[in-house]
């Protein structure tokens, strides 16, 4: 199997939440963990997993409350999601990992690389904020989003969530995620801590991304020694879904260095 399907995975209990994950590729291959974007799930990576699974042991984790993972009662923060991924790594006894994180998943990956609680070999972020400034255009979008608006824009995604999640409550999930998006505390965006990242970093952004500005991506690259920027023309917030044929050659070359 080379794609995620929400049928062949396992659960890890963390507090009162249950985290769902699936694995692809050879068990003895180098480990590559995929972290999806907000209100998404691991299947959003399926345009690129067939290529990655030939070289890597690919692990996809549904973030708490999303996909087939349950939300639990604790407040949702990027820090908590970081610790969730670290618990999965500990549970699987993984000594070192590489990470690809999209949007919220990229923010979690940046926090992980900055904290160095686990050994991160290489890191790719796709459409991920390192910080959310007071005047960042995304802030107004986050402030104005509601469950009804999101459902109107992404009806198929919400239907998929309601079909596979063990405890579906989209209104509650949206409010939890929205609070995380707007969290300016130390439990939120990695902010200045990205300066402590020592793992090789590839920052990917679609040039038509309305959430993550070119300036935000450049600021991230400038703060991490040796970081590289891939700004994809014609792509938007999710180039791994819309333009995998452009993204994959660069990502694979970066990971294989």
Automatic annotation (TrEMBL):
Q: What highest taxon heads this organism's lineage?
A: Bacteria
Matching Pfam families: Abhydrolase_6 (PF12697)
GO molecular-function terms, A-Z: triacylglycerol lipase activity
State the coiled-coil residue ranges.
none
InterPro entries hit by this protein: AB_hydrolase, AB_hydrolase_1, AB_hydrolase_fold
For the biological process aspect of GO, one term held by this record is: glycerolipid catabolic process
Q: Where is the AB hydrolase-1 domain?
A: 32-247
Q: What is this protein called?
A: AB hydrolase-1 domain-containing protein
**Species this protein is from:** Pseudomonas parafulva
Show the taxonomic lineage.
Bacteria, Pseudomonadati, Pseudomonadota, Gammaproteobacteria, Pseudomonadales
